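Lecture notes, continued. The same structure-token format from the folding unit now serves as the input rather than the output. Read the line below as a description of shape only.
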């Protein structure tokens, strides 16, 4: 009988632990609008770069890739940036949301002075680049993960 009380308490503790551990964390993409820039040095060859934080990125590489591809496809569909004649490429740069990278949600990069603050300083939080380039009447889309070689997602260039 002494052990029965202990077993009940242990079972309740384990059940509470399991319920708290099953917190469904959703992947969230946060656009860093203050870091978005357009490289328009060449009037007819403009590149736009977006920086995005990923909160709760999937730890499984294929699932993470799927999430990133869907995010980019959705963003390109809604913003139609590639429809602009002078835009030749779009680059999406993904970082994990951490205490370090969260700074850029409200602040621009500070490249000068004694204590510069640039997102590229946080290489440990870098996840991937998704690069889209126009070609003829189509696009070439590539994804680069920090620890893997480039991978072509779509190559639908038409002659």
């Amino acid at each position: 009988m002494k052990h029965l009380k202990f077993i009940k308490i242990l079972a309740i503790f384990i059940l509470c632990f399991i319920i708290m551990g099953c917190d469904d964390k959703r992947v969230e993409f946060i656009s860093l609008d203050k870091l978005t820039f357009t490289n328009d040095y060449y009037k007819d060859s403009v590149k736009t770069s977006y920086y995005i934080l990923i909160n709760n990125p999937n730890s499984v590489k294929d699932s993470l890739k799927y999430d990133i591809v869907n995010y980019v496809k959705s963003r390109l569909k809604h913003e139609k940036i590639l429809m602009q004649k002078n835009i030749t490429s779009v680059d999406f740069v993904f970082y994990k949301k951490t205490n370090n990278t969260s700074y850029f949600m409200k602040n621009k990069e500070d490249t000068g002075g004694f204590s510069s603050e640039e997102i590229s300083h946080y290489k440990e939080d870098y996840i991937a680049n998704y690069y889209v380039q126009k070609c003829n009447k189509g696009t070439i889309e590539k994804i680069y993960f920090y620890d893997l070689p480039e991978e072509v997602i779509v190559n639908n260039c038409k002659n």
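Point for the exam: The chain has one domain: 27-107+123-155.
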